Write a sequence for this structure.
């Protein structure tokens, strides 16, 4: 019998090989899809971080700020120095120092800022209830409501400003918050990618900001970040 006679009509060699292939494993396809989604998330996270860093780097303090009041979120005495200086210059009529350690007195902060006793006595309020940025926002919202302010200067570090403004607006949508960033590192002109400490701070703050955005989008109820409420929960 010849080779032509042995070959089955209508079925090529490639067709016979294709017919022997095993069906694709669904588990393998699922793993590939999962890895592809992880890759997309990683790319989106990197792009989001670069956008966040650029936004922080572009923050600048207003030249002649004017507001009803000023709030400074604790985390460094340099922030408080800037806030007291704004109060002395008349940028706002009253100052809240939010998130003060309960062991720190107003007199101690006054001495550190080298400001007058009269100024602290008349125009500076100490906020001892906030334990984090969410607490700062809720403590500030209560203070604003008590005094009826409408325009408030917000003093904090530039990298901390996006999350601070987000939490403040979520806690008090009626008030106009004006950013007054304190710049410790010039991100615009400095190669911060080669500075591990600065990079670590930015990444950490970006992650916290992202979580806050997701929480706001989902409308999730969380703790208030206020010392009194946390003490109540612990007591229960």
């Amino acid at each position: 019998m010849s080779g032509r006679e042995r070959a089955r009509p209508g079925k090529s060699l490639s067709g016979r090989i294709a017919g022997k292939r095993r069906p694709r494993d669904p588990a393998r396809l699922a793993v590939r899809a999962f890895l592809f989604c992880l890759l997309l998330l990683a790319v989106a996270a990197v792009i989001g971080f670069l956008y966040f860093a650029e936004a922080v780097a572009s923050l600048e303090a207003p030249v002649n700020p004017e507001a009803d009041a000023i709030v400074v979120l604790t985390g460094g005495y340099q922030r408080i120095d800037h806030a007291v200086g704004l109060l002395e210059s008349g940028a706002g009529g009253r100052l809240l120092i939010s998130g003060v350690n309960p062991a720190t007195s107003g007199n101690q902060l006054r001495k550190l800022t080298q400001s007058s006793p009269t100024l602290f006595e008349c125009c500076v309020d100490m906020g001892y209830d906030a334990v984090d940025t969410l607490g700062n926002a809720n403590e500030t919202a209560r203070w604003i409501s008590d005094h009826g302010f409408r325009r408030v200067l917000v003093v904090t570090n530039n990298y901390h400003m996006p999350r601070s403004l987000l939490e403040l607006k979520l806690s008090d949508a009626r008030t106009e918050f004006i950013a007054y960033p304190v710049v410790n590192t010039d991100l615009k002109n400095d190669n911060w990618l080669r500075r591990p400490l600065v990079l670590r701070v930015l990444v950490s703050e970006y992650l916290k900001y992202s979580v806050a955005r997701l929480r706001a989008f989902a409308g999730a109820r969380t703790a208030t970040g206020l010392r009194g409420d946390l003490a109540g929960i612990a007591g229960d």
Summary: The beta strands are 69-73, 95-98, 124-127, 151-157, 176-182. The chain has one domain: 69-235.
